[in-house]
Amino acid sequence: MSQPATPPAPEGLPTAFSRDSKPVLADGSPFRSKEVSWLSFNSRVLQEAGHHAVPLLERLKFLGIYSSNLDEFFRVRIATLRRLVLLGKDYRKLQLPDPKATLREALSIIKRDAALFDRIYDDIFASLAVQGIRLISDTEVPKALKPWLTDYFFAKVRPRIMPLVVRSYSQLGSLRDQPMYLAVEMGRASRKTRLAHALIEIPSAELPRFVSLPEHKGQRLVMYLDDIIRFGLPSIFTGLPYDKFEAYAIKFTRDAEMGFDDDVTESLYDKIAEGLRSRQTGQAVRMNYDSRIPLSFLKLLTDKLKLGSDDILMPGFRYHNRRDLVKFPAPDHLAYPHLAPLPHPRLSGKRESIFRVLQEDDLLLHLPYHSFTHFLDFLREASLDPLVQSIYLTQYRLAKQSCVARALMNAAQNGKDVTVLIEPQARFDEKNNIEWANRYQEAGVKVILGVPGLKVHAKMCLVVRHEGGSDRFYSAIGTGNFNEETSQFYTDHLLLTCHPGLGSDILESFRFFQSNWQPPQLGHLLAAPFSLRHGLKSWIQTEIDHARHGRDCGISLKLNNLADPEITGLLYEASRAGVPVQLIVRSMFSVVTGEPPSKNIRAIGIVDQFLEHSRILAFRNGGQPRYFLSSADFLPRNFDSRFEIVCPIYDPALQQQLQRCLDLQWSDNTKARLLDRKLSNALVRRPGPPLRAQEEIRTWLQAPPRKS
């Protein structure tokens, strides 16, 4: 069943953008900026929050996800665009669309969505009030509950409040990214006096952002922590000659790119520690503020933060940091019903060794429908089995209290040779990964702290077991991180196999991680930045050749992101040749459908209960289909500056499973949205009864296996 990994690659495809501001490829084909297409994805998240068929608590979570996504977009993408603008016309050397035009379009979309966000927010809380759950402000606290709230404030909140007085000589450049602040203006009600100003950091990292009060007249009352601070403002500033207080929410978003240099004399630990510190105080890229704040107070703050007319100042309402809505306290009946993970039929309730099962068949776990505990069982058995000699694993993001990490440390303490490649530059997980590196080393695990010049994003695990005088390889290769927390709400696929060629390729990859002087020599896996782009281009070109000779052809891709100019151009060429192309893409999407070069391309995106994270590649290949799982999305960084892998699926039964997943997702007419020329995000309308792919996939997987 083995197939050669990399046939010759086609040449001569457009890779550069035109030299004007219009985002098109060098040959004139349309190309949508990844920033605009990503914002369209976030708009789909917002649409889901506005969908009345979605349970109320889930709608709040989608608002929180939208807000969290937007924060990261400013910290990373807007920050990058602003740096590109500073380059002037030199941005053309980077073969990018005009950053000024992209920035204008992005901010226009964000402004449009902000109004929709507020309408949905009000609608949800009006519906919650009908359910007996009411969000109240500091001025709406019932008299009977004021003693309880006062006790809570003095016991929990006031000890954590340390105001910063804002004076003419104050320096505010050290205000941190992410926390929200209350900008407090103080005066006297009885007579005119000089106003005073202070900033209070809301301690939402230490206390719940939403606090449930005792039930009152059959209603469940909830308050923002912000309003509890407002409630207690007079007691915070005791001793000062003020009796009138107004508090306005403000928030700063800073550039999150760390910008490591090439100083090899400085340890990576030190670079990351310094990068994390600079992230907190980097250049501000956005200031959100309560639109009711007096202009004189706003000017005082912007002057102190050195924000000018070119900076992004965004007026809003009373509350910011609404990503915390994902933690809103509400009864479970207002959420989706809890779905227990399904046992895999070959592993359910059996005491048979997983290794023995894999000697007979490859297995495919479909997460979160299948239980991630099967992978934990795989590691547990490996840590105890006397025949197991060594374990290898790549770590990109682990859970905070990771069972995977504990299994690896136990294996090392049980005498196994355990090696873990930790990616120290996994954005926003750097600190967690460094902490795990230290704990691993203390437990006797060999740690490879990244690869110079490459971010390792591949998801691979290898167990080497000595059987009958020789080594046998047992591999786990997936599309998602080895993370038991995200495995509960990310859709991913995890291959378990004892295919000797795949195991040898993982071992060869780890040899490369340990000594980077020679590219890995792989026979089955494709790895970026060495062979992945080359191989993908050749597979698409093969489909073009099949189309030109009248043979069966077709391309189906399920990805998180597709915004690589070269691959986009090649998909246009496939469309022109008559190759039917089906694309299921969650977020960044630069193909413009509905234009002449894309008449045979159809594209959808799905937003539903679970985050669509799996990556599947399928090629009809003249009637001999090929299927692959990928750790990589189709972005330049994935092909050119990361270590990624694409893994072939050789077992026909598992190929059929992947095709079934693709077919169900493509047939979705409930949660699928069109990725059309105008990025309208219109729901897909297909004939027949309503079909929701995530429900159908779970139903299919829990059906009893057919008897042969």
Low-pLDDT sequence parts = 1-21, 258-281
Mean pLDDT: 87
Q: What's the CATH architecture of the largest domain?
A: 2-Layer Sandwich
CATH topology of the largest domain: polyphosphate kinase like
The count of DSSP E runs of length 2 or more, i.e. the number of strands, is 26
Rounded to the nearest angstrom, the distance between the terminal CA atoms is 22 Å
What count of domains describes the coordinates? Answer: 3
CATH C-level name of the largest domain: Alpha Beta
**The CATH superfamily title of the largest domain:** Polyphosphate kinase middle domain
Radius of gyration: 27 Å
Please outline the major beta sheet: 9 strands, mixed
| Percentage of residues assigned to helices | 25-40%
Per DSSP, what share of the residues sits in E-state strands of 2 or more residues? 15-25%
Based on the structure, what is the oligomeric state of the protein chains? Answer: single chain
Structure notes:
The chain is of the alpha/beta class and 708 residues long. Helix content is 34%, strand content 20%. The protein has 18 helices and 26 strands. It is globular, with a radius of gyration of 27 Å. The chain starts with 33 loop residues before the first helix and ends in a 6-residue tail after the last helix.
